[in-house]
Automatic annotation (TrEMBL):
Database matches in SUPFAM superfamilies: Actin-like ATPase domain
Residue span(s) of domain Ppx/GppA phosphatase N-terminal: 3-277
Protein name in UniProt: Exopolyphosphatase
A single GO molecular function term of this UniProt record: pyrophosphatase activity
Species of origin: Enteractinococcus helveticum
InterPro entries according to UniProt: ATPase_NBD, GppA/Ppx_hydrolase, Ppx_GppA_N
Top-level taxonomic group: Bacteria
Ranges annotated as spanning the membrane: none
Length: 302
């Protein structure tokens, strides 16, 4: 922490697909645990190298649902010497919200603004509604939910082909529509929203596609505001591609190639739902590279 705020020393993202098969089997697959433990072993080295203490390990969606959670917890504790916190969807949403809005440019507003932060993960999607005061940067969370809707979970649940068929796409869309319809309309009232912020790899990757980037560029992606129509167009293009075509994109992480189609279905539909709910008031979405990881770091500084 410096006088100018939190200073990032190191950031590394690994796609370990911990939630592989969880929706179907209700437990972590042995190979998924192996991939996760290998990544944590490397992270432990970085933590030691930077002297980054205290350490907080947060486990989210898939970890809440499995029968063999103890094997996961023990494996993390052995390698990192901290006990992973399997947090509720509400805590996950709160951490995501604080991280996502921490780097928003609020200079465009001269009044408190109502923001929806959406974190589209592998096993779940968090929707958080809050108010951001641009005069002092205070962010207040008003409502949050965690839906069992994510790119890995949807890809496996709906057994999406390569590429998905129109029938599979419609079935997935109907699934998401049911989750959205189950939200309390009085709590999740989108009508007076001012802005939508999307975080996590699916959303940043679709943003890279919409921007026409040849390679993944965090600086170009972070803070980008695009028309929803443009984002939906990029999402639909990804959905229609084969895995071979997706792999050819320089911005596409190899760990997302097979599941990004499911994520694109979710992101496009969520944005269209919000645009319709606001009666056209919200026509754009902002992409943030700051997410739950930043929220966790901020929580250790409080």
């Amino acid at each position: 922490m410096t006088e100018n705020g939190m200073q990032e020393l190191h950031r590394d993202m690994r796609i370990v697909r911990l939630g592989q098969g969880v929706d179907e089997t209700g437990e972590f697959a042995p190979e998924a645990l192996d991939r996760t433990f290998a990544a944590v072993h490397e992270y432990a080295k970085e933590i030691t190298r930077h002297g980054a203490y205290p350490t907080r390990f947060i486990a989210t969606s898939a970890s809440r649902d499995v029968s063999n959670r103890d094997a996961f917890v023990t494996g993390i504790r052995q390698r990192l010497h901290v006990t992973p916190e399997v947090v509720s969807g509400e805590v996950e949403a709160e951490l995501t919200f604080s991280g996502a809005v921490s780097a928003l440019d609020t200079s465009r507003w001269d009044r408190p603004v109502k923001v929806a932060v959406i974190d589209l993960g592998g096993g779940s999607t968090e929707i958080v509604l809050g108010t951001l005061d641009p005069t002092n940067g205070t962010a207040t969370m008003n409502a949050q939910t965690s839906m069992n809707v994510g790119c890995v979970r949807f890809h496996e649940r709906h057994k999406l082909a390569d590429p998905p068929t129109q029938t599979q796409i419609r079935t997935a869309q109907d699934d998401l529509a049911q989750h959205l319809a189950a939200l309390d309309p009085q709590v999740f009232d989108f009508t007076d929203l001012d802005a939508v912020v999307g975080v996590a790899g699916t959303i940043t990757t679709i943003t890279a596609a919409a921007l026409g980037l040849e390679a993944y560029d965090s600086e170009a992606i972070h803070g980008t505001e695009l028309d929803i129509a443009r984002i939906v167009e990029a999402a639909n293009a990804i959905i229609a591609e084969t895995t071979q075509q997706r792999a050819a994109h320089g911005f596409m992480h190899k760990g997302r190639i097979d599941v990004i189609g499911a994520g694109a279905i979710i992101w496009a539909q969520l944005l269209q739902h919000i645009q319709q709910a606001t009666h056209g008031r919200v026509t754009t979405a902002i992409t943030s590279e700051k997410d739950i990881l930043d929220g966790i770091a901020l929580s250790l500084l409080r």
